[in-house]
What we know:
- By secondary structure, this protein is α+β, with helices and mostly antiparallel strands.
- It has seven helices and eight strands.
- The protein has helices at about 5-15, 35, 40-45, 50-65, 80-90, 100-105, 160-165; strands at about 75, 75-80, 110, 120-125, 130-135, 140-145, 150-155, 165-170.
- The strands form two sheets. The chain has a six-stranded antiparallel sheet with strand order 3-8-4-5-6-7, with helices on both faces. The chain has a two-stranded antiparallel ribbon with strand order 1-2.
- Helix 4 (about 50-65) packs across helix 5 (about 80-90).
- The model is unreliable at about 5-50 (pLDDT under 50).
Amino acid sequence: MNYRLLISILSLSFASFSAFSFQLPPSMLSEHSSLLISPAKSALMHDDPGPLRSRILDQYQKWKGTHYRWGGTTHNGVDCSALMQHLFSDAAHLNLPRTTGEQIQRGVQVAQYRLKAGDLVFFQTGPHRRHVGVYIGDSQFIHASTSQGVTVSTLADNYWQARFITARRVAGSAA
């Protein structure tokens, strides 16, 4: 069987499973491959999130310590998905949907080992509860914690590792 055909079949097979993130190594792609220039591939390969990271951190300073309030959208109290809306609107001029359930559908799925600053990270924190934060590098993410308010936590923490479900790249190279 042709090597590229096999890779294409495997790629399509994994595409139907949302828990998997499959990407061909650059060495397997020719210069003229349509996979090399697709928007999804471009977003996954974006290597310079520095300016976005700086803008997100600037916004974080404005929200740091804000108390968590389920359904809250202001500095008097904010929940995790509303915080992501504010951070991305102000830092990247990107409008995210209001709920975690809607945000998890946005962008391109990215494997945890490929995270870049600006990627949304999602967790299952209860039987019917999800949580979202934004990755800022060095295994850290900003989120609205129910116990600490708006804070920075580490993905390396056992609590978050056990609950991690997916990550999504919602801001491309234009951010």
